[in-house]
């Protein structure tokens, strides 16, 4: 029996049990977030707090809409206001019609009496519909225009923030919140505000008509619409708070989903049988999401139930009061009939207005997320020393020449959120015409130093000086042109081979001869001319006639891109030959050696044979520079470099 049970258990999919076990230990994002600042304020927002925020939000929406399309903004708003006037006219005409129809006398006479008012009613109703149509047209055209503007600003900032912003999870959450809903909400806010103005105009119009019919009807209008409005406001509030607390988890979920349906992870996922684990993680995440959804639905349903009950009672009360007024002779039958029409239209308009108020406030909250992202991004852009620290005037305004010497002066660096330094007090001088090699074990800080030299990060302390000028204090636009980098993480641009190389200096005019010579120098030319479409070959299997490359082929293309950019300044190559075959590696190193005496080269390599010709070799250990000299001197010194070199040499000798 026990054996049977064991067999049976083996048939039950493992994933189910592992996903349960993995839940807490693997995925911190399972917990809802509490970092957001205005969640509680959102959940408990009173109507008056919302009302107080409305003018600000309306102003904000108006500014955004105006900037995107002033003519459409004015058209949408003005036509809605005029349509409101037509509404009042139509309602007052209804009163005249009913008064005439319910008056004593012969039927034909009463119909004839109602004729002029009926004509006014028809013209006013027609005008209102026509204006509404044109206003809707303007409003709909406004939406894509606002969206395009908002999106352009978003990507301007995401591409301008310093590289370090992407190492900060709080910034990643803000980007996600903004992209996921915040940006859309900017567009929606504009629509909401137009709806709000329309709703307000309609309510004022109906209110004016009601006040003319009988002033006592006005409070009845409010009483009937308020409970539903309250429920709508609270429901949206609950949804917002829930959404905000789930931003990180959704980011994680999206990442898992991408890896389960992506061609780059497809092979690894199968080879390592990683799919059950990923699906387990995904299931646990989805589980948490569904639980959060259910909780919101429960609370929203309760809220709506309370609102609808109260609204039903209020509407019954309104009609009871109207009936009482009729019985007591406070209003004649004709007025009462007009009041019923006006009240029905009025409560519809009130409900629309409250929904618009709520939508405006609600989208306003998501817009705050977007505003938080904008603020954070702008702060990070502004918080760069070249924008804040005083620098020599000539250094700030004129482009720097290619440096003769680059001094790394007591540089330490710590990644955001880390509690240890990746680099500690590194001092190094790189001279024009020389090759400097950075070597050391994995994680010793070589790439970090390369990124600092390339100006992608700024030192936590210490300075990097170009001929005595601290480049941290100079606008990167004035010196980045002298830097070219072949990164360890090869960027697989999914464009044509030519564009993939050209992107090394995207803003310069295309120089086909230069593209070809860069490809030749990187050992990529023959490979490219061998493609069906040569330099015009699309490097993306996801599109028609696209192809993919091998790891080494991508690396050749990356080197070609770096060499295309290079203009004899500083070229940094981070493991440029890791995936290359012997022939391509030899060609690349010959190219790099050819720079000797004229340009500055920094090369990171684990293959020490490739760096023996370097003018100086810097050895990094746990973020510290421990040895610095030429190959022969370092070998003679018998330190860490000598040990590593011996080890590598021995492992290449046949036993
Ligand atoms: N973006 C990052 N955020 C946080 N820590 C990082 C980041 N990049 C690197 N590190 C850490 O900084 C340290 C130095 O990493 P670095 O990439 O500079 O090493 P390396 O010497 O280039 O290693 P390798 O030989 O493996 O390429 C490591 O401990 C690494 O975990």
UniProtKB/TrEMBL annotation:
ABC transmembrane type-1 domain: residues covered: 74-362
Start and end residues of each ABC transporter domain: 406-647
One Gene Ontology molecular-function label: ABC-type oligopeptide transporter activity
UniProt membrane topology term: Multi-pass membrane protein
Pfam hit, one: ABC_tran
Domain of life: Bacteria
GO cellular component: plasma membrane
Key words, A-Z: ATP-binding, Membrane, Nucleotide-binding, Transmembrane, Transmembrane helix
Location(s) in or outside the cell: Cell membrane
Protein name: ATP-binding cassette, subfamily B/ATP-binding cassette, subfamily C
Transmembrane segments: 61-94, 114-138, 186-210, 216-236, 305-327
Upper lineage: Bacteria, Bacillati, Actinomycetota, Actinomycetes, Glycomycetales
């Amino acid at each position: 029996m026990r054996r049977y049970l064991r067999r049976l258990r083996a048939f039950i999919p493992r994933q189910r049990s592992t996903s349960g076990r993995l839940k807490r230990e693997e995925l911190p994002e399972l917990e809802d977030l509490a970092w957001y600042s205005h969640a509680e304020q959102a959940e408990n927002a009173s109507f008056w707090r919302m009302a107080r925020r409305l003018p600000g939000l309306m102003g904000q929406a108006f500014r955004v809409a105006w900037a995107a399309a002033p003519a459409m903004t004015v058209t949408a708003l003005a036509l809605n206001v005029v349509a409101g006037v037509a509404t009042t006219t139509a309602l007052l005409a209804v009163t005249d019609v009913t008064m005439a129809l319910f008056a004593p006398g012969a039927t034909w006479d009463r119909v004839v009496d109602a004729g002029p008012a009926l004509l006014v009613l028809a013209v006013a109703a027609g005008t209102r519909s026509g204006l509404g149509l044109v206003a809707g047209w303007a409003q709909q055209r406004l939406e894509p225009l606002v969206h395009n503007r908002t999106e352009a600003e978003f990507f301007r900032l995401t591409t301008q923030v310093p590289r370090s912003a992407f190492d900060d999870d709080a910034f990643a959450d803000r980007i996600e919140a903004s992209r996921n809903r915040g940006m859309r909400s900017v567009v929606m806010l504009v629509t909401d505000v137009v709806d709000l103005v329309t709703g307000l105009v309609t309510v004022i119009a109906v209110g004016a008509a009601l006040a003319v019919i009988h002033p006592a009807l006005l409070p009845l209008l409010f009483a009937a619409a308020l409970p539903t409005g309250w429920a709508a406001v609270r429901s949206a509030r609950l949804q917002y708070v829930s959404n905000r607390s789930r931003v990180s988890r959704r980011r994680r979920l999206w990442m898992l989903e991408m890896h389960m349906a992506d061609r780059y992870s497809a092979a690894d996922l199968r080879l390592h049988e990683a799919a059950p684990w990923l699906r387990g993680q995904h299931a646990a995440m989805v589980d948490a999401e569904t639980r959060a959804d259910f909780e919101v639905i429960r609370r929203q349903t309760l809220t709506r139930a309370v609102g609808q009950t109260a609204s039903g009672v209020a509407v019954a009360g309104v009609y009871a009061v109207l009936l009482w007024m009729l019985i007591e002779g406070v209003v004649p039958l004709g007025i009462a009939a007009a009041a019923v029409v006006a009240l029905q239209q009025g409560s519809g308009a009130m409900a629309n207005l409250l929904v618009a108020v709520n939508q405006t406030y609600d989208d306003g909250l998501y817009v705050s997320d977007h505003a938080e992202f904008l603020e954070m991004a702008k702060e990070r852009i502004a918080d760069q020393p070249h924008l804040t620290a005083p620098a020599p005037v000539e250094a700030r305004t004129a482009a720097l020449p290619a440096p003769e010497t680059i001094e790394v002066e007591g540089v330490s660096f710590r990644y955001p959120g880390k509690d240890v330094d990746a680099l500690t007090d590194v001092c190094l001088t790189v001279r024009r015409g020389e090759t400097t090699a950075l070597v050391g074990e994995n994680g010793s800080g070589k790439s970090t130093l390369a990124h600092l030299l390339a100006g992608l990060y700024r030192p936590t302390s210490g300075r990097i000086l170009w001929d005595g000028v601290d480049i941290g204090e100079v606008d990167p636009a004035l010196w980045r042109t002298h830097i070219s980098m072949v990164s360890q993480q090869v960027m697989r641009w999914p464009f044509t081979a030519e564009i993939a190389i050209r992107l090394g200096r995207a803003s310069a005019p295309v120089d086909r001869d230069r593209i070809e010579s860069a490809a030749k120098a990187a050992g990529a030319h023959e490979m490219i001319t061998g493609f069906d479409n040569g330099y015009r070959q699309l490097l993306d299997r996801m599109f028609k006639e696209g192809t993919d490359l091998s790891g080494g082929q991508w690396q050749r293309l990356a080197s070609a891109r770096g060499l295309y950019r290079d203009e004899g300044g500083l070229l940094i190559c981070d493991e440029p030959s890791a995936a290359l075959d012997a022939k391509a590696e030899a060609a690349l190193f010959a190219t790099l050696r050819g720079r000797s005496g004229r340009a500055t080269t920094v090369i990171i390599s684990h293959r020490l044979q490739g760096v023996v010709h370097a003018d100086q070799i810097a050895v990094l250990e746990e973020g510290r520079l421990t040895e610095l000299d030429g190959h022969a001197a370092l070998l003679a010194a018998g330190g860490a470099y000598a040990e590593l070199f011996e080890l590598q040499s021995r492992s290449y000798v046949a036993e």
